[in-house]
Design goal:
heterodimer, A: 437 residues, alpha/beta, FAD/NAD(P)-binding domain, Enolase-like, domain 1, 3 domains, five-stranded parallel β-sheet, globular, B: 88 residues, alpha+beta, Alpha-Beta Plaits, two-stranded antiparallel sheet, 4 helices
Chain lengths: 437, 88
């Protein structure tokens, strides 16, 4: 049996571990055109700020890989030849598979602004190579412009600021991450950025990118103003890498469609991670996530299925932890709605589910640094944002995912100035005993 | 006293240093490695988190570097049965 995994991200590695836990002898081959292999993609944010050395981003040693007994091939898969159960590698050699996992991830959408294409110093943050190039440019330059939204745009802003650049962060709308955060939360993040010395520009849209001798030197905004810069970094959204799939007739939508077993419309081909659009049997919908833990779990489930152990992936309440302008923030369940002007589609570290806000009432407490917002449904909590103190984020995650019936405290939660944290803590203690958590 | 303190009542530094160790909530972790990178005695904290295991090394100084530096609030100190007799 030969298992082939395309992609070296967390979904791919998790699938290797999972296959190996079931099949001790089958051949496992991972193929990726990223020469670095498996590393922590979210950790790039901390590498950019200088909190980490690049070598520290690699969680595994050669010995660890030896124990897993699989091979890594640094090459590009150029075609999937489904009828032959084979892959075309680098356009020339053929490689046969029995079971295939597509875990090729997603990549940054290009910045569609006149003048931007091909200009040196116009940067994204997809890979370690991008991060290294950003650091190199930051050493030489003084001023950076960042455009886009969501977590990655902020990581770029904070990273370039930490590397000594003066950063202008351009927002097309009137606040940061408007389809996930509420107005107050956006203001908290923006205030922290300003206090650090970042210059924020609202209702600011790029008209043109200006270069000299092939390198970016300035940006023109639609209001006619001009900002000089040595670097322009963008994060306007990501898109699943579907090129490989385009020439097959596997079902796809925004991502590669898979059922709850992570299986595509070809029973020997599976998909997991950012490239996969996963069917959720509980809601009957299929959605995109670009989150680390769902990718890891999808890889695990796909691996088990590939090795012959039928398993289903059950999507739990989408959940992410991030640091927004230095503030640890947990986003759980459904918290926002609508569209963010700064993004085209999904962002990295994002879930489409966060924006499917049903009828729910908001209860919130806290101020500036420690803040909590709850989305209260009829009988359950449907979402929460916890900024700063994270004591309640784990209980909230469990209560939201477990659809805890909060009827007994709902009225109290809804009262103005309600002591939300205390009410929740008290409720959690009895609920967890009941649920034996 | 706020009810929230029930989460914190057994985690004073003194108690932790004498009887606790570092535990994790692995679903928050993205394996960035800041914990391992900052451990003064070289414990691979990150690998423990991946396996959802507590850091059970007698060498662990419980210095708190990994707990404090984790950007995603993955790690915390907890008392464990290993060192402490629980009443009831």
């Amino acid at each position: 049996m030969r298992y082939v995994i395309i992609g070296a991200g967390v979904a791919g590695l998790s699938a290797v571990e999972s296959i190996r836990s079931v099949d001790k002898v089958g051949e496992i081959l991972m193929i990726s055109d990223d020469p670095h292999g498996f590393y922590s993609r979210p950790g790039l944010a901390y590498y950019l700020t200088g909190e980490l050395h690049d070598k520290a981003l690699f969680p595994r040693t050669k010995e660890d890989y030896k124990k897993l007994n699989f091979n890594f091939l640094n090459a590009r898969v150029t075609r999937i030849l489904r009828s032959d159960h084979a892959l075309l590698i680098d356009g020339k050699s053929r490689l046969v598979y029995d079971k295939l996992l597509i875990a090729v991830g997603a990549r940054a959408l290009p910045l569609e602004v006149p003048g931007a294409a091909g200009l040196h110093g116009v940067m994204k943050l997809d890979h370690l190579t991008d991060a290294k190039n950003l650091i190199k440019l930051a050493k030489r330059g003084k001023t950076a412009v960042v455009v886009g939204g969501g977590i990655t745009a902020l990581e770029l802003t904070e990273g370039l600021h930490a590397r000594g650049m003066h950063v202008h962060y351009l927002l097309r709308g009137d606040r940061y991450w408007s389809n996930v955060l509420d107005k107050h939360e956006s203001q908290v993040v923006e205030g922290l950025l300003r206090a650090e010395g970042v210059t924020l520009h609202y209702k600011a849209e790029l008209q043109e990118v200006i270069g000299k001798k092939g390198s970016v030197t300035a940006v023109m905004l639609k209001d006619g103003s001009k900002l000089q810069c040595d670097l322009l970094a963008y994060a306007v959204g990501i898109s699943p890498c579907l090129e490989l799939v385009n020439e097959t007739n596997l079902a796809k939508d925004r991502g590669l469609i898979v059922n709850e077993h992570l299986q595509t419309t070809d029973p020997d081909i599976y998909a997991a991670g950012d490239v996969a659009q996963v069917f959720d049997p509980l809601t009957g919908k299929s959605a995109l996530d670009s989150l680390w833990n769902p990718a890891r779990e999808q890889g695990r489930v796909a691996g088990r299925n590939m090795a012959g152990r039928k398993s289903a992936y059950l999507k739990s309440a989408p959940f992410n932890v991030t640091r927004l302008a230095g503030l640890t923030t947990t986003i759980i369940g459904v918290v926002g709605r609508g569209k963010d002007e700064d993004m085209i589609g999904i962002a990295r570290g994002d879930s489409e589910t966060w924006r499917e806000l049903p009828e729910a009432i908001v209860a919130q407490s806290g101020f500036e640094i420690n803040h909590m917002r709850l989305m209260v449904g009829e009988k359950t909590l449907v979402g929460a944002i916890v900024m700063g103190d994270q004591t309640l984020s784990w209980p909230l995650q469990k209560m939201i995912a477990g659809k805890a019936d909060i009827s007994s405290i709902r009225d109290q939660l809804m009262k103005p100035e309600a002591p939300l944290a205390d009410l929740l803590a008290q409720f959690w203690m009895s609920w967890r005993t009941q649920e034996a958590l | 006293m706020s009810f929230l303190n029930i989460f914190k009542s057994d985690s004073t530094r003194h108690t932790v240093m004498s009887s606790g160790h570092v535990v994790s909530e692995s679903s928050r972790c993205v394996q960035c490695g800041i914990c391992t990178y900052n451990c003064p005695i070289g414990i691979d904290v990150r690998a423990h988190v991946w396996r959802d295991e507590a850091v059970k090394y007698s060498e662990c100084l419980t210095c708190g570097e990994c707990v404090a530096r984790c950007p995603r609030g993955v790690l915390r100190f907890a008392q464990t049965d290993l060192f402490v007799r629980r009443d009831g």
